[in-house]
Task: structure prediction
Amino acid sequence: MAATCVEINASNPTVTIGVTCFNARDTIERALQSVLGQDWPSLDVIIIDDCSSDGSWEIVEAWTVQHPYVRAFRNPVNQGAATSRNTILHHAVGEFIAFFDDDDESSPGRISGQLRTLLACEARNGPADVACFASAARRYPNGYELNMPAIGSSEIVPYGEGVADYLLYNSRKAEWFYGAGTPTCALMARVSTLKAVGGFDASLRRVEDVDLAVRLALRGCYFVGTPQQLVLQHATVSPDKNALANFQSETMLIEKHAAYLHRRRSYDYAKRWFYIRYLHFDQRRLPFMIHIVLFLLRYPVRSFKHMLNSLPKRWLHERKMRSIGNYNQ
Result:
């Protein structure tokens, strides 16, 4: 992971780093070390433990004693990442906020690199919302690493409804670079930008990051990314990382944005595509093949282009990670 030098200006803004933690006893210290190793001079660190039962909270408490500027809160019951991130937003004192996951590592230059990229985008585009994502790599237990360049890390920056179309039904503009999408674990934005759209939807246990990005896109937000790889994700499994849980949240996402999808004449298309994804990840091969054929028959040109862009990459990725189980990522 590459580091970047600081040098933004004499009055560097405070950045809140928000860390969500749930049953991460084996990884939370590594994540916190990368938080405290940031080269940015003005940080506000908030950790939310989502009612862990494996001793994670005790580790977090010990870190707050050793580092008094680190604040930690614990949810009384498990409420999901969206609620925890909303709590971070509520307590944030920084002008900007970046989210770190409890099983990831970030380069010491992540905050400075993302802030530089975000401010440059603001300077080019005037008073507009900007969401900045860090390029990343995802490492699997067998040593395979997936390169995950950030959305908007090329010359032309995606923005507005075109990003919502990509996230909801994979419509792409040829000149835009969509990279690894919009994962919250790689996100930095102004606190005011996230609060303006109401933060995260706490009813979603999964894909809450996609929903946030869709709402930002519908406000005209720009999605820019760092060319430098600043985050290392470690692929892990947990009870909520399964095909059914993901599909249930994706279905809620589609219904939430149904009016927009109907306006785009893509509601049925989006529903069918998310169901096909579910059948694939649930390893239901015969229904998967049947629905692929039906999809092609109903939307021959559109679906063929979609699958030509998505399926070969997915097949190659799964072949490389095949020996380590189904991570649904």
